[in-house]
Amino acid sequence: MATPKISVRSVSKTFDLAGHELAALQDVSLDIADNEFVTVVGPSGCGKTTLMNILAGLEEPTGGHAVVDGREVSGPGPDRGVIFQQYALFPWLTVRRNVEFGLREQGVGRRERRELADHYLRLVGLEQFADALPKTLSGGMRQRCAIARAYAVNPSILLMDEPFGALDALTRVNLQEQLLQTWNEERRTVLFITHDVDEAVFLANRVVVMAARPGRVFDVIDVDLPYPRPEEARLSPEFAALRNRVWRAVHHQDGGPAVVPQPSVPTA
Amino acid sequence: MQLTDPRRAAPAVTTGGTPAPARRRRRWRGRSLVLNLVSIVLGVAGWETLALLGYTLPTPAAVARRAGELVADGTLADDVRASLRRVVLGFALGTAAAVPVGFLMGWYATARALIEPWIQFFRTIPPLAIIPLAIVLMGIDETPKVFVIFLAAFLACVIATFQGVVDVNRTLIDAARVLGARDLSIFLRVVIPASTPFIFVGMRVGLGSAWATLVAAELIAAQSGLGYRMQSAQLYYDLPTIFVGLISIGVLGLVMDRLLLLVERRVTGWQERR
User: Fold this and answer.
1) By residue range, what is the domain housing residue A220?
2) Residue A66 to residues A26, A75, B160: CA-CA distances in angstroms?
3) What ipTM goes with this model?
4) B49 and chain A: CB distance < 8 Å anywhere?
5) Looking at beta carbons, which residues of chain B come within 8 Å of A68?
């Protein structure tokens, strides 16, 4: 592997919770190559969202280094687009203006802004809703708008934090396929957080399984299914085998669910 | 002083939406308008009955006659103009000061810690109690009158604005940051629009307080104004004039509140209601 696009080196993050320390992440190391699609799956409290926030520059590690393109992460930047579980669309802006938000921040002119926004709205199939307000959209459409908004500033990395977690099962499957289509047309390096094993296997070329208390990398599983992945790929025996492996890694860590009596962990 | 609360006088009417609910809503709107009218007619009839039964109330007809006289000789127009000027000026100044102060308090913890004790302190003092101080410090012209209205509007609006800024969704700020927005831009493009609904709530409460303070303000050696007119009518046991004053204040307050509501609907229509 050439120089990694994202390099997580022994990253730790401890939170001070009412006097006692909580290790959200302990000595996590992970390399991600350019244009790789990596999913991170694990039980709640394994620190997967914390890991993403550190890479996004929204949180700082208490130990170790998060390096992107050879530079240590210090604060958010337009090279890393983030997609949140709660969509985080600006409700007072139309769909198109939401997509244009980051472009305006970068000083892109009005005409070019509009062209780019329309391009990415077409890419996610929302061109007919360009002038609609977010409140009129369904959850799935809102998330597609958020994906277009993240794509529009042309980041080389997309960080996605359980983006489909709040959607119903059918919409989720639809969006997974759409996301892969979008990604096939415009490849980016993707780090995708999920707690859904099927989703993790279907999307990724590498699945990182994390364990909780302390949050750490438990296993890394390569998914050598070719892209583009049609819907039928989900029914293949190869998919089932991989799915079983990931399932076991997630649900039977240390030979059984590791339940250590500890105070509950806030999931962000 | 008892005034009808203009904010509760009519049901809120939402606009937009898909055709079928819109039609249903329009039908309901029509029905509720009819019910509003029925209610007013019943109220006036009840008033008439009480007056005829010998309670010390002027009949609606007497009040209407008095209103006609006050309109004819220009007194009512002068009073309305004087009172409106005070309310509008005090309310406008109060809101204009409250919005930046509220933003400052919500955005900077230091500013909040410095300003909040004063706000909480003045909030506990009724504007009426400020009047003796205002007269001594500011004399007896327009300044102390506008000042007490200003204070009432300011206090109501500043708290709401501050709350609006504090309540801005963290994820929206994070979303703006990861899209490359810096502090100033986050403030202008996220915090301000996100807190406008709160500011409008504060403005509407502030407007109510401004009208509520008006009569108290016109205790200060006023020469005109609806509150002044009512107080001098009280000396002559002139009940119809008092009623004209009360009704005028209620109607003006209601109209201004509806106008503000109209602006609010246009500016914050992006909100998801219910």
Assistant:
1) 1-74+196-268
2) 13, 11, 41
3) 0.85
4) no
5) none
A99 belongs to a structural domain: no
Q: Please report the pLDDT score of residue A254 as a whole number.
A: 64
Using CA atoms of A5, B176, A11, A217 in order, give the dihedral in degrees to the nearest 10. Answer: -80
Q: Which residues pair with A20 in a beta bridge?
A: A17
Whether domain B58-267 has CATH 1.10.3720.10: yes
Task: Kindly report the pTM of this predicted structure.
Answer: 0.79
- What number is the average pLDDT over the span B28-42? 89
In this predicted structure, the answer to whether residue A2 has a pLDDT above a threshold of 70 is no
Cis amide linkage into residue A214, ω under 30° from 0: yes
d(CA B244, CA B232): 13
Residue A106: list chain B partners with CB under 8 A.
180
Q: How many structural domains comprise chain A?
A: 1
- From the list B169, B180, B272, the residue facing A105 with the nearest CB is B180
Q: Which of A68, A84, A90 to mutate to test the interface with B (most CBs of B within 10 A)?
A: A90
Q: Please write the tens of the pLDDT for every residue from B49-104.
A: 998 888 888 889 999 999 999 999 999 999 999 999 999 999 999 999 998 999 99
**B272 and chain A: CB distance < 8 Å anywhere?**
yes
Beta-bridge partner residues of A210: A217
Q: What is the helix (H) or strand (E) element at residue B94, kind and residue range?
A: helix B75-107
| Vertex A119: Cα angle to A32 and A203 (nearest 5) | 35
Which is nearest to A107 in space by CA: B178, B185, B190?
B185
Query: Which residue has 């504060």 as its token pair?
Result: B202
CB B165 within 8 A of CB B103: yes
Read off the CATH number of the domain in which A264 is found: 3.40.50.300
Q: Is A254 left (phi over 0), alpha (psi -120 to 50) or beta?
A: left
How are beta strands A37-41 and A206-211 bridged, if at all? parallel
Beta bridge partners of B82: none
